[in-house]
Amino acid sequence: MTITIDRPEAPAGPPKLDREALLRAQRDTLATPRMAYSLLARMMFKPVDLLYGKQGSFTKFAMLEIIARVPYQAWERVGYWAVHRYAGRSALAKRVFERIVEARSDQDNEQWHLLIMQDLIERDGMRQNWLLHKVAPWFISFFYYHVSWVLFLVRPEASYRLNAEFEDHAEHEYMTFVAENPELEFMPDPGTYAAEYGRHRSVADLLRQIGHDERVHKLDSLENLKSPRYSSAR
Length: 234
Ligand SMILES: [Fe+2]
Ligand SMILES: [Fe+2]
Description:
CATH topology: Ferritin
Distance between the termini: 40 Å
Bound molecules: fe (ii) ion
Number of helices: 9
């Protein structure tokens, strides 16, 4: 016998946009000033610029995507700790769990970004060196992970703010890169992860979509900032 129950669905992630909406999203980003980045955020952006260049590139974006997943992972970890702590208070435990689900979905989204970047690097035949593309991202991620969870425990609003700055930076980097490299309009989207991520007309549109995802992540973090502590969430 099959029992049918109502099951909540996993979040679908940021919306997929059509070409018109992607062009609009890019115009919106380029017309919006960057956030005022904190010292901590600049401490992350500076070494990335020094190691991978100020200009955008697939290799630089791959590096940014490796570290982009880190705060969501840190929040997920702290979330599980909080769920156990609030296990006897179902309403609060549920709210914490909603944030955990959101953090997991955002990690998956960042993971697709990384796989797409690595695929573009492979196809372009770019070389990645071990020190610059394996060891350095590991060190930066390690630092960011611990900063994220400690900050989240001490001052959750600062952790959300830091992530919003990181996402704002990523959004502007992608949209600017597309604007500065018109040849990307004529490079077809290889669609390697079409089934999981969707397929666009060109690599330019694919990167615009990723840039828009970063904007959605930023807005989510700014929204969470309004009720940063689990005990006062919503
Ligand atoms: Fe990303
Ligand atoms: Fe992101």
